[in-house]
Amino acid sequence: MRQTVTPLLFILFFIPDTHAQLFDSKVYNVNPYIDGAITVGAAATNYWGMVIVDRKPPLDSAEIASLDANDINCFDRSATRQDADYIYRAWKISNVGMRGSFLLPALLMLDQDIRQDWAPLLLLFLQTEAVAGNLYSWGAAIHIDRIRPLVYHPDVVYEDKTFIRNKNSFYSGHASTSAAASFFVAKVYCDYHPELGNKKFIFYGLALIPPVFTGYYRYKGMKHFPTDIMTGVAVGAATGILVPRLHKHRKNKNLTLVPVTGRYAGLAMSLTF
Question: How many domains does the chain have?
Fold first, then answer.
């Protein structure tokens, strides 16, 4: 995630034809300077958060030897019993699933009305993923230690068990990233087509496919427990829906909501009388 946002932001803001009018949107209120600053700031804090995560000390041999899969709740325990010979392939597939999710917004360009608003939507998507990254790094990975399932498996090689991020099972950043992208696409499409009515839930149902696919292979690769994946999907889906929702044109323009990321994640609200 941290390697992806910065180059895209560079491309966006250094296109010669990019100017404020390009960010006029039929559906969303996007300020290229304010939202651009928020997105760049969020990308920076996410990067720093992952640097802190990587400073966690790896598991030592005594910690690994003391682990017992029977201490894990019965719902999650199956994650420790996957095929150790398949994990490397599963990791590759899950990486493809996550990285492929960054291409999902391109599907929106098939719609002529949406295609005209490509610039604000690109910025909103980058902001969505930056916020999702901060929620993962600052909201979970830095503060919560949960050992990955593979560490419990007797047939996984020792070197894989001492990887620096093996305390970051909770929650699945891959699933969250994928869900943020797919639910962003569903939310934007439905916002541009209010005539869909309750049919919009079909699109939200379809949006589950990419993160579930990615999460399944994180499970098969013994990177995450089922509850880690479910949490990641929920957080990513909420982010993918709420960031566009907070930018939507509204009748009460005196009310302002702005996503805030950094040491703590949340929303800043102001009401002008």
Answer: 1
- Structure-block tokens of residue 205: 């149902």
- 259, part of any domain: yes
Residue 172, Cβ neighbours under 10 Å: how many? Answer: 33
CB-based contacts of 108: which residues, under 8 Å, 6+ apart? 114, 115, 121, 185, 188, 189
Name the nearest CA neighbour of 59 among 179, 159, 132, 175: 159
Q: Put residue 262 in one of left, alpha, beta given phi > 0 → left and psi -120 to 50 → alpha.
A: left
User: Domain containing 59: what range?
Assistant: 2-67+78-271
Q: What is the pLDDT of residues 51-109, one digit of tens each?
A: 999 999 999 999 999 999 999 999 999 999 999 999 999 999 999 999 999 999 999 99
Count of positions (residues) in the chain: 273
Using DSSP, state whether 267 is helix, strand or coil.
strand
